[in-house]
């Protein structure tokens, strides 16, 4: 439990003995004063760094009891990625910005937006859209750019298949279908009527029987 706060760190009661968490061991992110991250009476998990029995001093660390975010930074971020950063410190050569707890990078003066006054943009607490230039997890360094954050990412050209032309039929006169061929059936020979047939036993007349 946190028993007292000082400018240089925080004292933690271990149950019969007090240990000191130096300000550099409070968190993986930058801390200007212990009151930014702790308060008296707060329960905390610590790791014992060293014990000096002669001087009766115990050195503790809070951040060592947590996972170091730099060990997995390359799994979460890649060069070229645009992120939101919060300015934490101003330096003569640029500014430092935090993109997450424990991960800070440098915005060099050469990576500011051309034609703008750095003082109007860079102040502690300002939130900026930044592009990641490089990541060096081993050296705990991160390069950030403000002027490149607004640049449009290059898009690879893709070849598209030409769309099939549509045949416009609206307004076109409908085509008349060819008339179907009519098959004419030859007329069957007519059957003589009963009146035209000769009576029973009567011989049909011929030219020889006709009177001269």
Rg over CA atoms:
50 Å
Instruction: Please state how the strands of the largest beta sheet are arranged side by side.
Output: 1-2-3-5-4
Please tally the β strands and state the result: 10
Following the backbone from N to C, one meets helices and strands in this order, namely: EEEEEHEEEHEE
Per the CATH scheme, the topology name of one domain is OB fold (Dihydrolipoamide Acetyltransferase, E2P)
CATH homologous superfamily annotation of one domain:
Nucleic acid-binding proteins
* Percent helix: under 10%
Query: Looking at the structure, what is the overall shape?
Result: elongated
Average pLDDT, all residues: 79
Give the uncertain stretches in residue-range form: 152-174, 177-212
Largest sheet, described in full? 5 strands, mixed
DSSP helix count? 2
Helix vs. strand class: mainly beta
CATH class of one domain: Mainly Beta
CATH architecture of one domain: Beta Barrel
Give the CA-CA distance, first to last residue.
159 Å
Beta content: 25-35%
């Amino acid at each position: 439990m946190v028993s007292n706060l000082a400018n240089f760190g925080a004292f933690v009661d271990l149950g019969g003995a007090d240990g000191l968490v130096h300000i550099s061991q409070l968190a993986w992110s930058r801390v200007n004063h212990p009151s930014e991250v702790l308060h008296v009476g707060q329960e905390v998990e610590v790791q014992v760094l060293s014990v000096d029995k002669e001087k009766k001093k115990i050195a503790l660390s809070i951040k060592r009891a947590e996972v170091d975010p730099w060990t997995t930074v390359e799994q979460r971020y890649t060069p070229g990625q645009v992120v939101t950063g919060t300015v934490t410190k101003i330096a003569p050569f640029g500014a430092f910005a935090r993109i997450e707890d424990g991960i800070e990078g440098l915005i060099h003066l050469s990576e500011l937006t051309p034609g703008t006054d750095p003082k109007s943009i860079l102040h502690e607490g300002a939130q900026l859209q930044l592009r990641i230039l490089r990541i060096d997890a081993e050296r705990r360094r991160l390069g950030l750019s403000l002027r490149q954050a607004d640049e449009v990412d290059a898009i690879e050209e893709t070849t598209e298949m030409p769309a099939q032309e549509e045949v416009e039929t609206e307004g076109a006169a409908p085509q008349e279908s060819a008339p179907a061929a009519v098959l004419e059936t030859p007329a069957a020979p007519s059957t003589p009527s009963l009146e035209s047939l000769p009576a029973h036993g009567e011989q049909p007349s011929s030219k020889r029987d006709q009177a001269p």
